[in-house]
Each structure stands twice: as structure tokens, then as C-alpha cells.
Design a protein that fits this description.
- The protein has 217 residues and is α+β, with helices and mostly antiparallel strands.
- The protein is built from six helices and nine strands; from the N terminus they run ββββααββααβαβαβ.
- The chain has one domain: 2-Layer Sandwich (60s Ribosomal Protein L30, Chain: A), CATH 3.30.1330.60.
- A nine-stranded mixed beta sheet has the order 2-3-4-1-8-7-9-6-5.
- Helix 2 packs antiparallel against helix 4 and helix 4 packs across helix 5.
- The protein is globular, with a radius of gyration of 17 Å.
Length: 217
């Protein structure tokens, strides 16, 4: 599994080789030793931190501020309510998975054309709505996770899931979400939520999820 972190230009000082993000045009470094692709941006350096780790939360908290433990529930309640209101007419599923975590589940059928990793133009405004809420509630990490069904080669499904997560993350950043908050990664076909034995199940498994987790002060 390859993670993609959107971080600052300062993190690229030690870059040994670069490639180009096909969605933003940014020059990026491929850290083959850690399996992390780091995007060029602005602001304080984040480094190659794992999504959701205590270290990542500490760095983000220093940049944008964390939430006092007793206030996390209310903060996430308000964010959840705003997301539900904004996404009522969409097919995005909003789940409250923990007091400090919200999951947005987007079927691939509304996000991408078949076998493609470019966000559909008609879906970009919906992601812009999501980005608007993320800007209003900055004290959360944003993990974008791509998933595939089991049809086809494992390596191909892994790459497609990564590219789709990267594409969604890029749209969020282009709509004002701070890079330092966001990690994108692909899980390939390893985390199905339905049976791959049926067409309906495979359709459910082809998805992108956005996990929002509160950063505690």
C-alpha cells in the first residue's frame, strides 16, 4: 500500500527523485524507502507521517490548533450536521463512526467514469461543498482512502485505488483544504464491504472514503 501525503515544499529539500502529480501538476518526490509520495505545497513541513498517528496529530495541532477533549463531541456534532445538510441531495453516505470521527463514503459510480481516476466534472461541485465544511472545521485530519473490487489484477486495482484517492484529495486541496491535514492512500481490493461474488457487491466495494478525525489539543 502506498500513502500519499500532501505537505509543504520544505519537506522536499532532501528529494532524490521527482515525478509529476497528474491531477495538480505539482512536482512530487517518490520515497521508495518509505512507500510515501509527498506533494509540493506551502506552509510548515509535515514530513512523512502515517495517517492518524499521534505524531501527525501533534504537528497538525501546532499548525491549526487542536480541540480540548471535552469539546470534541460538540465540534464533531456540528461538523456532521453541516455535512448532512450539504450532502442531502447527493449519494454520499455520512456515518458517525466514533465520537471523534466521521466517515464519508462515495460510490465510484458517481465519482469516476469506469476504470478512470479523474473526478467527474459534475461531481466536483459536490466535493467543493465537502471542502467548504472542512474549511469551516479545520481541527480534523482528512484521510482519503480509495477502494476497488476484486475484478482484475491485484496490482492494477491497488494502483487505481491510489490514483482515485489522490484525485479526490487534489480536488479538496484545490478548494481550500490545507495540505497539511490531508493524507491519501489506496487499499486496492483488501477491504471489501460487500461480497465480490455479485455485481451489486462489487459496485459497493468500488468507492472512495473520507475519514475525518478530530485533533485533540
Amino acid at each position: 500500500m502506498r500513502s500519499i501525503l500532501f505537505v509543504s515544499a520544505a519537506a522536499l529539500v532532501a528529494a532524490s527523485c521527482t515525478t509529476t502529480d497528474p491531477y495538480t501538476g505539482d512536482r512530487v518526490r517518490n520515497n521508495t524507502g518509505t512507500g510515501v509520495l509527498v506533494g509540493a505545497g506551502t506552509g510548515a513541513a509535515l514530513g512523512t507521517l502515517a495517517g492518524g498517528s499521534d505524531s501527525r496529530n501533534a504537528v497538525i495541532g501546532a499548525i491549526i490548533g487542536g480541540i480540548a477533549g471535552g469539546a470534541i463531541g460538540g465540534y464533531m456534532d456540528r461538523q456532521e450536521a453541516q455535512l448532512r445538510a450539504q450532502l442531502r441531495e447527493s449519494q454520499i453516505e455520512v456515518q458517525r463512526t466514533a465520537q471523534d470521527e466521521i466517515l464519508l463514503r462515495m460510490p465510484a459510480s458517481i465519482t469516476f467514469d469506469f476504470d478512470q481516476a479523474v473526478v467527474k466534472s459534475q461531481f466536483v461541485p459536490t466535493l467543493a461543498d465537502v471542502a467548504r465544511t472542512l474549511r469551516d472545521y479545520p481541527s480534523t485530519t482528512v484521510d482519503v482512502i480509495g477502494h476497488a473490487d476484486s475484478t482484475g489484477a491485484d496490482d492494477y486495482n491497488q494502483e487505481l485505488s491510489e490514483n482515485r484517492a489522490f484525485a479526490v484529495g487534489s480536488v479538496l486541496i484545490n478548494n481550500g483544504v490545507q495540505r497539511e491535514r490531508l493524507v491519501a492512500r489506496g487499499m486496492g481490493e483488501t477491504q471489501p464491504i460487500a461480497s465480490n461474488a455479485t455485481a451489486q457487491g462489487r459496485e459497493q466495494n468500488r468507492r472512495v472514503e473520507i475519514r475525518l478525525k478530530a485533533v485533540q489539543a
